[in-house]
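== Polypeptide entry ==
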Amino acid sequence: MTPAARAAALREALATRVVVADGAMGTMLQAQDPSLDDFQQLEGCNEVLNVTRPDIVRSVHAAYFDAGVDCVETNTFGANHAALAEYEIPERVAELSEAGARIARETADEFAARDGRLRWVLGSMGPGTKLPTLGHVSYGVLRDAYQRNAEGLLTGGADALLVETTQDLLQTKAAVLGARRALRALGADVPLMVSVTVETTGKMLLGSEIGAALTALEPLGIDMIGLNCATGPAEMSEHLRHLARHARVQLSCMPNAGLPVLGKDGAHYPLTAPELADAQETFVREYGLSLVGGCCGTTPEHLRAVVERVRGLTPASRDPRPEPGAASLYQSVPFRQDISYLAIGERTNANGSKKFREAMLEARWDDCVEMAREQIREGAHMLDLCVDYVGRDGVADMRELAGRFATASTLPIVLDSTEVPVIQAGLEKLGGRAVINSVNYEDGDG
Protein backbone atom coordinates (compact mmCIF):
# COMPACT_ATOMS: atom_id res chain seq x y z
CA MET A 1 0.00 0.00 0.00
CA THR A 2 1.30 3.46 -0.88
CA PRO A 3 2.01 6.02 1.86
CA ALA A 4 -0.88 8.15 0.59
CA ALA A 5 -3.28 5.19 0.77
CA ARG A 6 -2.16 4.35 4.30
CA ALA A 7 -2.68 7.94 5.44
CA ALA A 8 -6.11 8.01 3.83
CA ALA A 9 -7.02 4.75 5.57
CA LEU A 10 -5.90 6.21 8.91
CA ARG A 11 -8.06 9.29 8.38
CA GLU A 12 -11.01 7.04 7.58
CA ALA A 13 -10.42 4.91 10.69
CA LEU A 14 -10.19 7.98 12.94
CA ALA A 15 -13.46 9.28 11.51
CA THR A 16 -15.41 6.05 11.95
CA ARG A 17 -14.08 4.16 14.98
CA VAL A 18 -11.69 4.32 17.92
CA VAL A 19 -8.04 3.90 16.97
CA VAL A 20 -5.73 2.55 19.69
CA ALA A 21 -2.10 3.61 20.00
CA ASP A 22 0.66 2.14 22.15
CA GLY A 23 1.95 2.98 25.62
CA ALA A 24 5.29 3.82 27.25
CA MET A 25 8.46 3.40 25.20
CA GLY A 26 11.43 4.55 27.29
CA THR A 27 10.91 2.25 30.28
CA MET A 28 10.56 -0.77 28.01
CA LEU A 29 13.79 0.10 26.21
CA GLN A 30 15.63 0.55 29.50
CA ALA A 31 14.26 -2.77 30.79
CA GLN A 32 16.37 -4.50 28.14
CA ASP A 33 19.48 -3.01 29.74
CA PRO A 34 21.24 -1.58 26.68
CA SER A 35 24.98 -1.09 27.18
CA LEU A 36 26.93 2.15 27.07
CA ASP A 37 28.28 1.00 23.71
CA ASP A 38 24.72 0.58 22.49
CA PHE A 39 24.22 4.25 23.37
CA GLN A 40 27.47 5.15 21.59
CA GLN A 41 28.67 6.51 24.94
CA LEU A 42 25.63 8.84 25.02
CA GLU A 43 23.92 7.24 27.99
CA GLY A 44 20.17 7.75 28.05
CA CYS A 45 19.87 8.87 24.43
CA ASN A 46 17.26 6.31 23.44
CA GLU A 47 17.12 7.56 19.86
CA VAL A 48 20.66 6.29 19.19
CA LEU A 49 19.29 2.77 19.68
CA ASN A 50 17.45 3.23 16.39
CA VAL A 51 20.86 2.88 14.73
CA THR A 52 22.79 0.62 17.09
CA ARG A 53 20.09 -1.72 18.43
CA PRO A 54 17.08 -1.70 16.09
CA ASP A 55 16.26 -5.17 17.44
CA ILE A 56 15.48 -3.73 20.88
CA VAL A 57 13.31 -0.97 19.44
CA ARG A 58 11.53 -3.44 17.14
CA SER A 59 10.76 -5.73 20.08
CA VAL A 60 8.92 -2.91 21.89
CA HIS A 61 6.81 -2.15 18.82
CA ALA A 62 6.09 -5.87 18.39
CA ALA A 63 4.97 -6.21 22.02
CA TYR A 64 2.36 -3.50 21.52
CA PHE A 65 1.20 -4.88 18.17
CA ASP A 66 0.87 -8.30 19.86
CA ALA A 67 -1.42 -6.57 22.37
CA GLY A 68 -3.70 -5.57 19.49
CA VAL A 69 -3.02 -1.87 19.06
CA ASP A 70 -3.60 -0.20 15.71
CA CYS A 71 -0.54 2.03 15.71
CA VAL A 72 2.77 2.63 17.45
CA GLU A 73 4.77 5.78 18.06
CA THR A 74 8.32 6.00 16.77
CA ASN A 75 11.28 5.97 19.13
CA THR A 76 12.01 9.61 18.31
CA PHE A 77 10.69 11.50 21.34
CA GLY A 78 14.09 13.13 21.79
CA ALA A 79 15.07 13.42 18.11
CA ASN A 80 14.89 17.19 18.21
CA HIS A 81 17.35 20.06 18.38
CA ALA A 82 17.08 20.78 22.11
CA ALA A 83 17.40 17.20 23.32
CA LEU A 84 20.15 16.12 20.92
CA ALA A 85 22.10 19.34 21.49
CA GLU A 86 22.55 18.24 25.10
CA TYR A 87 24.40 15.20 23.72
CA GLU A 88 26.24 17.45 21.24
CA ILE A 89 24.72 15.68 18.22
CA PRO A 90 22.02 18.09 16.95
CA GLU A 91 23.11 17.38 13.38
CA ARG A 92 21.67 13.83 13.73
CA VAL A 93 18.03 14.92 14.02
CA ALA A 94 17.02 13.75 10.54
CA GLU A 95 19.12 10.56 10.65
CA LEU A 96 17.72 9.30 13.94
CA SER A 97 14.18 10.35 13.02
CA GLU A 98 14.27 8.43 9.75
CA ALA A 99 15.83 5.37 11.40
CA GLY A 100 13.17 5.34 14.12
CA ALA A 101 10.33 5.62 11.62
CA ARG A 102 11.79 2.91 9.42
CA ILE A 103 11.94 0.40 12.30
CA ALA A 104 8.31 1.11 13.22
CA ARG A 105 7.25 0.94 9.57
CA GLU A 106 8.91 -2.43 9.02
CA THR A 107 7.35 -3.85 12.19
CA ALA A 108 3.90 -2.54 11.28
CA ASP A 109 4.16 -4.02 7.79
CA GLU A 110 5.27 -7.39 9.18
CA PHE A 111 2.18 -7.60 11.38
CA ALA A 112 -0.09 -6.42 8.55
CA ALA A 113 1.29 -9.16 6.31
CA ARG A 114 0.32 -11.81 8.86
CA ASP A 115 -3.40 -11.08 9.04
CA GLY A 116 -4.14 -8.39 6.46
CA ARG A 117 -5.06 -5.79 9.10
CA LEU A 118 -3.42 -2.45 8.44
CA ARG A 119 -1.19 -0.99 11.17
CA TRP A 120 0.02 2.58 11.30
CA VAL A 121 3.06 4.52 12.48
CA LEU A 122 2.78 7.80 14.40
CA GLY A 123 5.90 9.93 14.08
CA SER A 124 6.70 11.16 17.61
CA MET A 125 7.91 14.78 17.86
CA GLY A 126 8.75 15.47 21.49
CA PRO A 127 9.09 18.80 23.30
CA GLY A 128 12.81 18.83 23.94
CA THR A 129 14.31 20.45 27.01
CA LYS A 130 14.28 24.15 26.08
CA LEU A 131 11.39 26.59 26.47
CA PRO A 132 11.46 29.33 23.82
CA THR A 133 8.98 31.49 25.72
CA LEU A 134 11.56 31.74 28.50
CA GLY A 135 14.34 32.53 26.05
CA HIS A 136 16.14 29.18 26.27
CA VAL A 137 16.25 28.88 22.47
CA SER A 138 14.96 30.88 19.53
CA TYR A 139 11.73 30.06 17.74
CA GLY A 140 13.44 29.89 14.33
CA VAL A 141 16.05 27.36 15.45
CA LEU A 142 13.34 25.11 16.88
CA ARG A 143 11.05 25.39 13.86
CA ASP A 144 13.80 24.52 11.39
CA ALA A 145 14.99 21.56 13.48
CA TYR A 146 11.43 20.27 13.79
CA GLN A 147 11.16 20.44 10.02
CA ARG A 148 14.19 18.13 9.75
CA ASN A 149 12.64 15.91 12.43
CA ALA A 150 9.38 15.65 10.46
CA GLU A 151 11.11 15.13 7.12
CA GLY A 152 13.07 12.22 8.59
CA LEU A 153 9.90 10.68 10.03
CA LEU A 154 8.02 10.97 6.76
CA THR A 155 10.92 9.60 4.73
CA GLY A 156 11.13 6.65 7.11
CA GLY A 157 7.46 5.81 6.63
CA ALA A 158 5.39 7.59 9.30
CA ASP A 159 1.66 7.71 8.55
CA ALA A 160 1.01 10.71 10.82
CA LEU A 161 2.98 13.30 12.75
CA LEU A 162 2.34 13.58 16.49
CA VAL A 163 3.62 16.70 18.24
CA GLU A 164 3.42 15.40 21.80
CA THR A 165 3.93 16.17 25.48
CA THR A 166 4.06 19.89 24.74
CA GLN A 167 4.55 22.27 27.66
CA ASP A 168 5.20 25.66 26.00
CA LEU A 169 2.75 26.92 23.38
CA LEU A 170 5.53 28.69 21.47
CA GLN A 171 7.48 25.44 21.26
CA THR A 172 4.30 23.68 20.13
CA LYS A 173 3.74 26.23 17.39
CA ALA A 174 7.35 25.84 16.24
CA ALA A 175 6.86 22.07 16.00
CA VAL A 176 3.54 22.32 14.16
CA LEU A 177 4.78 24.86 11.64
CA GLY A 178 8.03 22.94 11.17
CA ALA A 179 5.95 19.84 10.47
CA ARG A 180 3.78 21.71 7.98
CA ARG A 181 6.90 22.92 6.16
CA ALA A 182 8.09 19.32 5.96
CA LEU A 183 4.76 18.18 4.53
CA ARG A 184 4.96 20.86 1.84
CA ALA A 185 8.61 20.14 1.05
CA LEU A 186 7.94 16.42 0.56
CA GLY A 187 4.52 16.80 -1.05
CA ALA A 188 3.03 14.61 1.70
CA ASP A 189 -0.45 14.67 3.19
CA VAL A 190 -0.72 12.90 6.53
CA PRO A 191 -2.65 13.73 9.72
CA LEU A 192 -0.96 16.29 11.96
CA MET A 193 -1.78 15.71 15.63
CA VAL A 194 -0.94 17.67 18.78
CA SER A 195 -1.01 16.39 22.34
CA VAL A 196 -0.48 18.92 25.13
CA THR A 197 0.54 18.15 28.70
CA VAL A 198 -1.53 19.63 31.51
CA GLU A 199 0.00 19.35 34.97
CA THR A 200 -1.77 18.55 38.23
CA THR A 201 -2.16 22.34 38.64
CA GLY A 202 -4.74 22.24 35.86
CA LYS A 203 -2.49 24.18 33.50
CA MET A 204 0.46 23.54 31.21
CA LEU A 205 3.96 23.98 32.63
CA LEU A 206 4.11 27.70 31.82
CA GLY A 207 0.59 28.37 33.07
CA SER A 208 -1.48 27.94 29.90
CA GLU A 209 -5.10 26.89 30.30
CA ILE A 210 -6.50 24.28 27.92
CA GLY A 211 -8.64 27.00 26.29
CA ALA A 212 -5.53 29.02 25.44
CA ALA A 213 -3.94 25.93 23.88
CA LEU A 214 -6.99 25.23 21.73
CA THR A 215 -7.30 28.86 20.60
CA ALA A 216 -3.60 29.07 19.70
CA LEU A 217 -3.21 25.69 17.98
CA GLU A 218 -6.43 24.82 16.16
CA PRO A 219 -6.06 27.63 13.58
CA LEU A 220 -2.66 26.21 12.55
CA GLY A 221 -4.41 23.49 10.57
CA ILE A 222 -3.94 20.53 12.91
CA ASP A 223 -6.14 17.46 12.50
CA MET A 224 -6.34 16.44 16.15
CA ILE A 225 -5.72 17.82 19.63
CA GLY A 226 -5.54 15.94 22.89
CA LEU A 227 -3.76 15.30 26.18
CA ASN A 228 -0.91 13.06 27.27
CA CYS A 229 1.52 12.54 30.16
CA ALA A 230 1.82 14.33 33.55
CA THR A 231 -1.32 12.81 35.09
CA GLY A 232 -3.65 9.87 35.01
CA PRO A 233 -7.04 9.93 33.29
CA ALA A 234 -8.93 11.22 36.34
CA GLU A 235 -7.10 14.54 36.19
CA MET A 236 -7.71 14.90 32.45
CA SER A 237 -11.49 14.66 32.44
CA GLU A 238 -12.39 18.35 32.74
CA HIS A 239 -9.83 19.40 30.13
CA LEU A 240 -11.21 16.80 27.73
CA ARG A 241 -14.70 18.10 28.44
CA HIS A 242 -13.61 21.59 27.34
CA LEU A 243 -12.07 20.22 24.14
CA ALA A 244 -15.17 18.14 23.42
CA ARG A 245 -17.36 21.25 23.72
CA HIS A 246 -15.23 23.62 21.67
CA ALA A 247 -12.76 21.82 19.37
CA ARG A 248 -13.62 21.42 15.70
CA VAL A 249 -10.90 18.79 15.22
CA GLN A 250 -10.72 15.21 16.47
CA LEU A 251 -9.65 14.39 20.03
CA SER A 252 -7.13 12.06 21.64
CA CYS A 253 -6.08 11.00 25.14
CA MET A 254 -2.94 9.12 26.28
CA PRO A 255 -2.72 9.34 30.09
CA ASN A 256 -0.12 7.99 32.46
CA ALA A 257 -1.01 4.95 34.53
CA GLY A 258 -2.12 7.29 37.30
CA LEU A 259 0.01 9.65 39.38
CA PRO A 260 3.37 8.15 40.43
CA VAL A 261 3.63 6.79 43.96
CA LEU A 262 7.01 6.85 45.71
CA GLY A 263 7.99 3.65 47.47
CA LYS A 264 11.12 2.03 48.83
CA ASP A 265 12.00 0.79 45.34
CA GLY A 266 11.35 4.15 43.69
CA ALA A 267 8.31 5.50 41.90
CA HIS A 268 5.65 3.30 40.36
CA TYR A 269 2.38 4.00 38.58
CA PRO A 270 -0.63 2.48 40.36
CA LEU A 271 -3.37 2.43 37.70
CA THR A 272 -4.23 -1.11 36.66
CA ALA A 273 -4.99 -2.23 33.13
CA PRO A 274 -8.76 -2.59 33.77
CA GLU A 275 -8.85 0.87 35.37
CA LEU A 276 -7.18 2.47 32.35
CA ALA A 277 -9.59 0.62 30.06
CA ASP A 278 -12.56 1.84 32.13
CA ALA A 279 -11.39 5.44 31.83
CA GLN A 280 -10.75 5.30 28.12
CA GLU A 281 -14.11 3.69 27.43
CA THR A 282 -15.79 6.48 29.42
CA PHE A 283 -13.89 9.16 27.53
CA VAL A 284 -14.83 7.64 24.17
CA ARG A 285 -18.50 7.49 25.15
CA GLU A 286 -18.66 10.94 26.78
CA TYR A 287 -16.17 13.05 24.84
CA GLY A 288 -15.99 11.37 21.44
CA LEU A 289 -12.30 10.48 21.40
CA SER A 290 -10.95 9.15 18.12
CA LEU A 291 -7.50 8.08 19.35
CA VAL A 292 -6.64 6.52 22.72
CA GLY A 293 -3.44 5.10 24.14
CA GLY A 294 -1.14 5.35 27.11
CA CYS A 295 1.91 7.23 28.34
CA CYS A 296 4.26 6.78 31.31
CA GLY A 297 3.73 3.59 33.28
CA THR A 298 1.45 1.95 30.71
CA THR A 299 2.44 -1.44 29.31
CA PRO A 300 1.26 -3.85 26.62
CA GLU A 301 -1.00 -5.32 29.32
CA HIS A 302 -2.68 -1.94 29.78
CA LEU A 303 -3.16 -1.47 26.06
CA ARG A 304 -4.50 -4.99 25.58
CA ALA A 305 -7.24 -4.16 28.07
CA VAL A 306 -7.98 -0.88 26.26
CA VAL A 307 -8.17 -2.65 22.89
CA GLU A 308 -10.63 -5.21 24.23
CA ARG A 309 -12.77 -2.52 25.85
CA VAL A 310 -13.08 -0.06 22.95
CA ARG A 311 -13.22 -2.59 20.11
CA GLY A 312 -16.38 -1.94 18.13
CA LEU A 313 -17.11 1.40 19.77
CA THR A 314 -17.92 4.46 17.72
CA PRO A 315 -16.81 7.80 19.20
CA ALA A 316 -19.70 9.71 20.70
CA SER A 317 -21.01 12.39 18.37
CA ARG A 318 -20.14 15.95 19.32
CA ASP A 319 -21.71 19.30 18.58
CA PRO A 320 -18.79 21.65 19.27
CA ARG A 321 -19.45 25.31 19.87
CA PRO A 322 -16.20 27.05 18.91
CA GLU A 323 -15.32 30.32 20.63
CA PRO A 324 -13.42 32.51 18.14
CA GLY A 325 -10.90 34.59 19.98
CA ALA A 326 -7.28 35.41 20.68
CA ALA A 327 -5.04 34.05 23.40
CA SER A 328 -2.14 35.03 25.56
CA LEU A 329 0.22 32.37 26.80
CA TYR A 330 -2.16 31.91 29.72
CA GLN A 331 -5.78 32.33 28.67
CA SER A 332 -8.15 32.64 25.76
CA VAL A 333 -10.25 35.78 25.28
CA PRO A 334 -13.34 35.37 23.06
CA PHE A 335 -13.94 38.08 20.50
CA ARG A 336 -17.58 38.15 21.56
CA GLN A 337 -17.92 39.82 24.96
CA ASP A 338 -20.87 40.05 27.34
CA ILE A 339 -20.51 43.81 27.12
CA SER A 340 -20.98 45.53 23.77
CA TYR A 341 -17.34 46.10 22.95
CA LEU A 342 -13.90 44.52 23.04
CA ALA A 343 -11.48 46.81 24.90
CA ILE A 344 -7.97 47.01 23.45
CA GLY A 345 -5.45 48.85 25.63
CA GLU A 346 -3.54 51.39 23.52
CA ARG A 347 -1.08 52.73 26.10
CA THR A 348 1.65 50.37 24.90
CA ASN A 349 1.72 52.01 21.48
CA ALA A 350 4.83 54.09 20.78
CA ASN A 351 2.87 56.36 18.44
CA GLY A 352 -0.05 56.90 20.79
CA SER A 353 1.62 57.08 24.20
CA LYS A 354 4.46 59.50 24.90
CA LYS A 355 5.15 57.81 28.22
CA PHE A 356 5.52 54.39 26.59
CA ARG A 357 7.61 55.78 23.73
CA GLU A 358 10.07 57.49 26.07
CA ALA A 359 10.40 54.35 28.17
CA MET A 360 11.08 52.32 25.02
CA LEU A 361 13.63 54.84 23.67
CA GLU A 362 15.47 54.75 27.00
CA ALA A 363 15.30 50.93 27.18
CA ARG A 364 13.32 51.08 30.43
CA TRP A 365 11.72 47.75 29.63
CA ASP A 366 10.31 47.15 33.12
CA ASP A 367 8.43 50.45 32.87
CA CYS A 368 6.98 49.33 29.53
CA VAL A 369 5.80 46.09 31.12
CA GLU A 370 4.25 47.96 34.03
CA MET A 371 2.21 50.08 31.57
CA ALA A 372 0.87 46.86 30.13
CA ARG A 373 -0.04 45.56 33.57
CA GLU A 374 -1.83 48.79 34.44
CA GLN A 375 -4.17 48.24 31.50
CA ILE A 376 -4.77 44.64 32.55
CA ARG A 377 -5.81 45.83 36.01
CA GLU A 378 -8.10 48.43 34.47
CA GLY A 379 -10.07 45.83 32.50
CA ALA A 380 -8.60 45.71 28.99
CA HIS A 381 -9.35 42.55 27.01
CA MET A 382 -6.26 42.79 24.78
CA LEU A 383 -3.11 44.93 24.62
CA ASP A 384 -1.98 46.83 21.53
CA LEU A 385 1.81 46.65 21.08
CA CYS A 386 3.32 49.07 18.59
CA VAL A 387 7.05 49.85 18.54
CA ASP A 388 7.22 51.68 15.18
CA TYR A 389 9.27 54.85 15.53
CA VAL A 390 11.51 56.62 13.04
CA GLY A 391 15.16 55.75 13.44
CA ARG A 392 14.57 52.71 15.67
CA ASP A 393 15.24 49.05 14.93
CA GLY A 394 11.63 47.92 15.08
CA VAL A 395 12.49 44.22 14.86
CA ALA A 396 14.82 44.44 17.86
CA ASP A 397 12.33 46.49 19.87
CA MET A 398 9.52 44.09 19.06
CA ARG A 399 11.59 41.06 20.04
CA GLU A 400 12.46 42.69 23.35
CA LEU A 401 8.96 43.80 24.26
CA ALA A 402 6.94 40.91 22.82
CA GLY A 403 9.27 38.51 24.61
CA ARG A 404 8.60 40.29 27.90
CA PHE A 405 4.85 40.69 27.31
CA ALA A 406 4.57 36.97 26.50
CA THR A 407 5.01 36.03 30.14
CA ALA A 408 4.12 39.31 31.86
CA SER A 409 0.67 39.73 30.28
CA THR A 410 -2.26 37.42 30.83
CA LEU A 411 -4.02 39.09 27.87
CA PRO A 412 -3.64 38.46 24.14
CA ILE A 413 -1.43 40.90 22.23
CA VAL A 414 -2.45 42.97 19.21
CA LEU A 415 0.70 43.34 17.10
CA ASP A 416 0.52 46.78 15.49
CA SER A 417 2.96 47.67 12.72
CA THR A 418 3.12 48.47 9.03
CA GLU A 419 6.35 46.45 8.75
CA VAL A 420 6.02 42.72 8.07
CA PRO A 421 9.41 41.83 9.68
CA VAL A 422 8.31 43.58 12.87
CA ILE A 423 5.08 41.60 12.98
CA GLN A 424 7.01 38.38 12.33
CA ALA A 425 9.40 39.18 15.17
CA GLY A 426 6.43 39.54 17.50
CA LEU A 427 4.79 36.31 16.38
CA GLU A 428 8.01 34.40 16.98
CA LYS A 429 7.91 35.47 20.64
CA LEU A 430 4.24 34.85 21.46
CA GLY A 431 2.97 31.40 22.31
CA GLY A 432 -0.71 32.35 22.24
CA ARG A 433 -2.80 33.53 19.30
CA ALA A 434 -2.12 37.19 18.52
CA VAL A 435 -4.16 39.69 16.53
CA ILE A 436 -2.39 41.50 13.68
CA ASN A 437 -3.18 45.15 12.98
CA SER A 438 -1.99 47.70 10.41
CA VAL A 439 0.17 45.61 8.04
CA ASN A 440 -0.13 46.84 4.47
CA TYR A 441 1.16 45.60 1.13
CA GLU A 442 1.53 48.90 -0.65
CA ASP A 443 4.75 47.75 -2.29
CA GLY A 444 2.98 44.81 -3.94
CA ASP A 445 4.12 42.09 -1.56
CA GLY A 446 1.47 39.50 -0.77
